[in-house]
Design a protein that fits this description.
The chain is 55% helix and 10% strand. The chain is built from 17 helices and ten strands. The strands form two sheets. An eight-stranded mixed β-sheet has the order 5-4-6-3-7-8-9-10, with helices on both faces. It has a two-stranded antiparallel ribbon with strand order 1-2. α4 runs antiparallel to α13. The radius of gyration is 24 Å and the shape is elongated. The N and C termini lie far apart (73 Å). Bound molecules: guanosine-5'-diphosphate (GDP) and magnesium ion (MG). Magnesium ion binds next to α11 and α12.
Length: 416
């Protein structure tokens, strides 16, 4: 069916465009419950058509801000036509207006002498000993007294207690002597975090687009709020995209955070196309010269295939809105799940490829050792850790500080 249009495209590009428009309206009567298979075929067809349309709109429009905005309008109209003709207000428009004020504020802020101290908030040793107190209690049950050297078996046992996977323990400890010094163990443990971030943080594209993925309840929405909060503290502008359109509550939750943090948000109604939200968010960020875009996504749809298709589509559409976007696909993992989170992460990694991990809820768990396995098994860096429910409870992950704080619990201080 699609190839028919393609053929036609060469001869009569203008007519084809009209046909395509009709096609979209005809072929995607969303809201109606359908047979799974049929739904999927339709979804795929409309995906392709929509993508092509977006592509065409983009080729037509010159890189002038007004035109970019017009494109956003078109895409939005299309979606509203398709899915919800009686859509009331226009939340996206509204929020874009708010943004200009926001931008002004940001600009003013930038003009003021910059007192915003470099608030990098890298997780310190004391941070980890607080955040991982439950994990450390377990460890201390194996080695209650600090020592200079610790027996191989004890180290093995305490790492198991901390929920580090046995295979990783074996790998880390391979060839170590019967009595292990702090230095020896430190070297091996830090090595497990060898997967460095693949983004040059000194030269970020503008806007820098982060797509947040992970299962429901992992902490995606909360982490987005935390990241937005960091952006603001660093004096950078940020716009949020409420891309978890599957649940109304998810949109509301992110809106509430946006209000609280006073950052703009692009959203739509429940059930609408998440990729269109992503497209709108990025396009408006491009037009308004925002520094950051953070996009939420659904953690669960009717089926795993649907979820996979939706995420793939969002990723593609992000790239249409801005070349190279999303610049980071961040996987949010619930730290209380320990090693079971790894299986989830692998599934998401297969769907869309993940660039890095944020582990949440470290405050409530004794499974902090899973950080080793998570990073090592997934061959991905851990960027941040979440340690509470407020917007401030996020710290940049530092393998060195994490390992040192763990070793401080069991080894006597290193003689210099
Ligand atoms: N204690 C604690 N709770 C968290 C953390 N991150 C998220 N949560 C809580 O976990 C629950 C699910 O978070 P949410 O962001 O809605 O997850 P989502 O479904 O992935 O978007 C909420 O009650 C959050 O407050 C964290 O680092 N520590
Ligand atoms: Mg959520």
């Amino acid at each position: 069916m699609f190839s028919f249009f393609k053929k036609k495209k060469k001869e009569e590009p203008i007519i084809e465009e009209e046909v395509l428009e009709e096609k979209v309206i005809e072929e995607t009567p969303k809201d109606e419950p359908e047979e799974d298979k049929q739904e999927q075929i339709q979804e795929e067809t409309s995906n392709k058509i929509e993508e092509d349309e977006v592509k065409e709109e983009i080729t037509k429009s010159e890189p002038i801000i007004e035109e970019v905005e017009a494109t956003v309008e078109n895409v939005k109209e299309e979606i509203q036509k398709e899915e919800l003709p009686e859509t009331l207000e226009n939340p996206i428009e509204e929020k874009v207006e708010e943004k200009s004020e926001e931008t002004l504020k940001e600009e003013q802020k930038e003009e003021e002498p910059k007192i915003v101290e470099e608030k990098t908030e890298v997780a310190s040793k004391s941070f980890f000993s607080r955040a991982l107190s439950k994990t450390f209690e377990n460890i201390k049950s194996v080695v209650p007294q600090r020592q200079e050297k610790i027996a191989f078996e004890d180290i093995e046992e305490l790492l198991i207690e901390a929920d580090m996977e046995y295979e990783i323990i074996e790998k880390a400890m391979d060839g170590l002597p019967e009595e292990i010094t702090r230095k020896q163990l430190r070297h091996r443990l830090v090595m497990l975090f060898e997967h460095a971030p693949d983004v040059d943080l000194s030269n970020l594209p503008k806007p820098f687009v982060r797509l947040i993925i992970g299962v429901n309840g992992a902490g995606k929405t909360t982490t987005i709020a935390k990241l937005a909060n960091r952006c603001k503290k660093e004096g950078k502008s940020v716009v949020l995209g409420a891309g978890d359109t599957f649940r109304a509550a998810a949109i509301e939750q992110l809106s509430t955070w946006a209000d609280k943090l006073d950052v703009p948000i692009v959203k739509t109604k429940q059930g609408h196309d998440a990729s269109a939200v992503a497209y709108d968010t990025i396009s408006s960020a491009v037009a308004k010269e925002f520094d950051n875009v953070i996009i939420d996504t659904a953690g669960r749809l009717q089926t795993q295939t649907n979820l996979s298709n939706e995420l793939k589509k969002i990723v593609k559409v992000c790239g249409k809105a801005q070349e190279g976007a999303p610049h980071q696909k961040l996987m949010i993992l619930d730290g209380t799940q320990g090693n079971t989170a790894i299986a989830q992460a692998k599934a998401f990694n297969e769907m869309v490829g993940v660039n890095g991990i944020i582990v949440t809820k470290l405050d409530g768990t004794a499974k902090g050792g899973a950080l080793f396995s998570i990073s090592n098994q997934l061959e991905l860096p851990i960027f941040y850790v979440g340690t509470g429910e407020t917007a401030d409870d996020l710290a940049e992950f530092s393998p060195d500080n994490f390992v040192d704080s763990l070793l401080d619990e069991i080894y006597t201080p290193e003689e210099k």
